[in-house]
Structure formats: structure tokens, C-alpha cells
Model the fold of this input.
Amino acid sequence: MSTQVTLRGRLTRHPELTYAKSGTAVARFAVVTSRNVKDRDTGEWTETGTSFWDCVAFGQFAENIAESLEKGMSVIVQGQAAQEEWVTKEGEKRKTIKVTCDDVAPSLRWASARVKRAERNADRVPAAAGASTSSAEFGGEFPPEPPF
Done:
């Protein structure tokens, strides 16, 4: 079971882009979230509730993330969080929460960004430019490119 989450934090490392055997791009990165609280007595700010979130994205979306984001950037991530369990080589049980990303964006709270349309690889576009693509999975006709 997964839970919809929205994270606002910083990238702990540059997104790692790899390709699955099927040729699908996979971006993996981590986001650290925390809350800053001001101590009333000292007036100093401290971080509390620090959490590290493993994130993953696929396809052209993954390539866009790897091209656009860098370690330390403030980002907003929306996606599905699910707990994963595994056993290490030493036989120890481990758990982590992984976020499968639906959307990722740089936070514009402390920075500015210039958005540019991503270049599409010809071999990844299912139909010629300007033609409609039929998709029974989604129940209709969709153009291969967004209208902007």
C-alpha cells in the first residue's frame, strides 16, 4: 500500500541516471526534509524532525530530473510513498520508505529557474510529430506533444 506525499527539502546528492534492461531511464536521488524551530530562550534556530527520503522516477521524466537538478537544490516532490523491506547479505532485515515520483520541481522560494521544453528523442516518440496517438490504456486520443 502506498500513501500520497508532498515533500519540500534539499537533494542530498546529484540524481543518478541509469537505464533498465528494457531501455527505460531510471533516476534515483534522495531528499532531506526537516523543520526549523526557533528556541525562545536563546533565539537560535535548530533543525528538528530530519528525515531522508529515497526517490525514484522513470522514463523521460527521469532524464529531465537528472538534467535539471543538482545536489543541494531545494525541491518539491510529489509522489507515492511505500515501505520496502529486504534482507542484507549478512541476513539482517532492513526497511526503507521509497517515493515513486509523480512530479518534481525546483523550489522557487529561494531561487529562480528558467524552464525550457525538454528535447524528445525520435526513437522514444510513439508517432510522428503532429499525429495523434491512440491509447486504449488511457481511453482516448492524445497528441504526442503537450500544447505549449
Notes: The longest strand covers residues 25-38. Residues 125-142 have pLDDT under 50 and may be disordered.
